[in-house]
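TASK: fixed-backbone design
INPUT:
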């Protein structure tokens, strides 16, 4: 979308608004920071368990996933979460990847360390990030730490195939931190999902994260329930993590419908979305309807334990709500094709792979469109927006809205099998034209009679406003930089400040024009894109030195941007 906007705006003759940026001499180092990796709500996570990634009869490998990266990128994924791939234990083991014998070694079934490095490198080349899964609460019985450092363990038994650690032990914490640093330094990963994080406790992770990532360059996700992981675990409340699982929300949908129970009222969705899993900082939640715990049938399983079986005809409704609700949505591998076989008891120990050749094209199209909306709609990618629950005159219809300023996304689902006609009662939706993102028609939602088919859904976005045709003049003053053979070059990319890897080139590297009568002042112009930041890269003509800076042009008040040494 961004590319198309940029291309369109290049065709428009723009009026120029002067933007002055005063740069120090060429020794200036710049103020550019790496793209913000924390709490971008438009990010979509893709969770992968390598053992079941192929249907060849053998365990999946790093290279199998590497070959599939173009498909994952095309789906719209921003982050790949890789479930544990470390060397597994044998003593008392049940084949679980969470039974770890060596934190610094890969399981040879998945490939080599070099294979893993190549995978991480290709993920980054595809504009995605990668998070590793970290098991901090327990180790395998045959992990060397058990005999070398028995004081690092407690008698508490959380699971019968592993030994639980004594989380208060400072030496254990340092050893754990060193292992986590190893993968950051060895592979250049972007973050960690910390498994069963509530068991070792908040202080354990505060200490370890402080050792591993003192400058907060990584993304940290805490897995666990809200009873053990409170609001103060996340950074907005003073904690060490960037986000945490929306456990209550997802478990409610799963537990209430795992035995193929039909949802008969919008009250269940309303309860899940507004009352169970969403406190004031709900935007920090990871939300999902599928995970390795749900689809893999680790406990109290039904079989077949697939999303089709668990959610039945409510699948589309749950998918729409989960993908458009506040939080960071996660897709479990194969969920996007609505696979029909993978799942069931013991899948994490058996090689019941996803059948990639069996694709539900209708469901895949739905998932792709919803991910595209996450990326493109400002109402869905900001933590400052509002979540609005709209009452209707039909108890079978559930309607909610994400609103941010003038931007709005309205989602509605019919929980009954019968077609319905209904009106939105309150709060009233502004009398603007809205576009049906799946049907293409436009309508005024406020006061009108709306219709949905049985178990149907609709998503409306506020009709696009005309493009702002303004432009910016970038004016760079470089004291003493008057050499005729060193005319500065400038390149400009624009990116959503909340999106990683969403850069679009606005201006290819080119010579700047020297302002007549001002030998050390240079100028060029760029299109105006509201609410986006511009990354400015400036290089002298001999390419001997350069700096980079980010200018956020979110409002006319921001046009006088000054950079000083």
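OUTPUT:
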């Amino acid at each position: 979308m961004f590319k198309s906007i940029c291309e369109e705006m290049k065709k428009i003759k723009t009026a120029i608004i002067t933007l002055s940026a005063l740069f120090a001499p060429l020794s200036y180092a710049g103020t550019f920071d790496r793209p913000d990796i924390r709490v971008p709500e438009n990010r979509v996570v893709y969770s992968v368990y390598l053992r079941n990634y192929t249907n060849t009869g053998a365990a999946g490998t790093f290279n199998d996933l590497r070959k599939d990266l173009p498909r994952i990128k095309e789906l719209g994924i921003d982050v790949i979460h890789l479930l544990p791939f470390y060397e597994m234990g044998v003593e008392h083991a049940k084949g679980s990847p969470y039974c770890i014998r060596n934190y610094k070694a890969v399981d040879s079934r998945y490939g080599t360390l070099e294979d893993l490095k190549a995978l991480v490198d290709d993920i980054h080349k595809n504009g995605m990030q990668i998070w590793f899964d970290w098991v901090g609460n327990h180790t395998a019985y045959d992990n060397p730490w058990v005999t070398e450092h028995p004081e690092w363990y407690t008698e508490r038994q959380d699971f019968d195939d592993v030994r639980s650690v004594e989380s208060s032990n400072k030496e254990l914490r340092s050893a754990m931190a060193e292992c986590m640093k190893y993968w950051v330094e060895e592979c250049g990963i972007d973050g960690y999902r910390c498994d069963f994080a509530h068991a070792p406790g908040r202080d354990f992770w505060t200490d370890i994260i402080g050792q591993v990532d003192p400058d907060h360059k990584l993304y940290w996700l805490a897995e666990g329930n809200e009873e053990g992981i409170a609001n103060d675990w996340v950074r907005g409340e003073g904690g060490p993590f960037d986000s945490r699982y929306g456990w209550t929300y997802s478990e409610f949908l799963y537990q209430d419908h795992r035995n193929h129970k039909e949802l008969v009222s919008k009250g269940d969705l309303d309860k899940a979305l507004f009352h169970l899993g969403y406190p004031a900082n709900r935007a920090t939640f990871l939300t999902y309807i599928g995970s390795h715990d749900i689809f893999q049938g680790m406990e109290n399983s039904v079989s077949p334990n697939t999303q089709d079986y668990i959610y039945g005809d409510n699948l589309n409704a749950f998918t729409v709500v989960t993908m458009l609700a506040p939080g960071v949505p996660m897709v479990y591998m194969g969920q996007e094709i609505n696979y029909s076989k993978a799942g069931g008891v013991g899948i994490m120990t058996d090689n019941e792979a996803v059948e990639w050749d069996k694709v539900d094209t209708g469901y895949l199209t739905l998932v792709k469109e919803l991910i595209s909306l996450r990326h493109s709609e400002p109402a869905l990618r900001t933590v400052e927006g509002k979540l609005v629950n709209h009452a209707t005159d039909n108890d079978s219809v559930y309607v909610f809205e994400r609103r941010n300023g003038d931007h709005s996304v309205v989602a509605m689902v019919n929980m009954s099998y019968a077609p319905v006609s209904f009106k939105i009662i309150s709060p009233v939706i502004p009398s603007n034209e809205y576009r049906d993102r799946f049907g293409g028609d436009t309508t005024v939602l406020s006061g009108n009679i709306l219709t949905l088919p049985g178990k149907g859904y609709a998503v409306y976005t506020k009709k696009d406003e005309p493009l702002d045709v303004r432009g910016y003049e970038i004016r760079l003053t470089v004291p003493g930089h008057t050499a005729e053979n060193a005319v500065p070059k400038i390149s400009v990319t624009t990116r959503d400040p909340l999106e990683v890897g969403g850069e679009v080139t606005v201006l290819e590297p080119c010579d700047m024009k020297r302002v007549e009568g001002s030998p050390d002042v240079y100028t060029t112009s760029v299109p105006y894109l509201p609410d986006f930041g511009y990354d400015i890269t400036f290089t002298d003509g001999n390419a001997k030195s350069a700096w980079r800076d980010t200018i956020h042009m979110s409002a006319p008040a921001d046009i006088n941007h000054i950079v000083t040494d």
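COMMENT: The mean pLDDT is 75.
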